């Protein structure tokens, strides 16, 4: 089992680096894509600053605490786009019967699919998210310890896993519909925008949607509340890695069920 996992990771690395080399041959497009994403995320930060010029605190959250939440969302979104953007092409592969060539190869279908497309803009999002995260850490009034740094790293990894799992599960609807339409997956993706702010500002219904039904809150809000010691939410921090494992397991289950329904071209 361990040997199989190591082999898949190695193949994933080789396929990913090959895609990057191919994309780097168009350097101007590569640079413009990253700049565009940095500007887009930077505008979101500017919007936050404009709000806090009028309102010093929102539901007990300061500007830099919300920037911290914002950065976790951006970083996970960028990492997902860069590392696993191929999941967005499931509809096309199913509709055109191109999953055939993936299934006949002696490689993991999931690894092949993830590396079939790379979101270069994701690099810009990761860079911007990382910069915002470091700035927030410097401005938030709290003492950092080795244990908190360890939890932060665990939260970052878990957040990426949760986001990728949510989108993968949503994209798998094409196995049942046979359509290239990704509107459902894009709708699920858009719900992640709500996790850029404290979920306590939303109604109970929305809180349940983005914390239970589609657990985006465990990417940003719950980790931040845990690290900052927000009493009413801090105790949920230990659930983040558990939710990540659950999301990964569920998305893999849905993907395998979808593959079982795949009927090649002409469905």
What does this structure look like?
By secondary structure, the chain is an all-alpha fold. The protein is 72% helix and 0% strand. The protein is built from 14 helices and no strands. The chain has helices at 2-24, 27-54, 63-84, 90-95, 99-103, 109-114, 121-139, 146-171, 174-177, 183-191, 204-213, 221-228, 231-234, 239-261. Helix 2 (27-54) runs antiparallel to helix 3 (63-84), helix 2 packs parallel to helix 7 (121-139) and helix 3 runs antiparallel to helix 7 (121-139). The protein is globular. The two termini are 34 Å apart.
Write the layout of secondary structure elements.
Layout: H1 2-24, H2 27-54, H3 63-84, H4 90-95, H5 99-103, H6 109-114, H7 121-139, H8 146-171, H9 174-177, H10 183-191, H11 204-213, H12 221-228, H13 231-234, H14 239-261
Helix pairs in contact: 2-3, 2-7, 3-7, 3-8, 8-10, 8-14
